[in-house]
Amino acid sequence: MVKSVYIHIPFCKNICTYCDFCKMYYNENWIDKYLESLDNEIKENYKNEKISTLYLGGGTPSCLQVIYLKKLFKIIDKINLDNNYEFTIECNIEDITEEKLKLFSLNKVNRLSIGIQSFNNKILKYLGRNYNSDIIDKKIKLAKKYFDNINIDLIYAVKNQTIKDLKDDIDRFLKLDISHISCYSLMIENNTILFNNNEKYIDEDLDRNMYDLICGKLKEKYNHYEISNFAKKGYESKHNLSYWNNNEYYGFGLSASGYINNIRYTNTKNLSKYILNIYDRNIEKVSKEDKMKYEIILGFRKLDGINKKDFYKKYNKRLEDDKIIKDFINKGILFCDDKRVYINEEYIYVSNQILTNFV
Ligand SMILES: C[S@@+](CC[C@H](N)C(=O)[O-])C[C@H]1O[C@@H](n2cnc3c(N)ncnc32)[C@H](O)[C@@H]1O
Ligand code: SF4
Question: Ligand 2, closest atom to CA 12?
Answer without folding.
Answer: 8
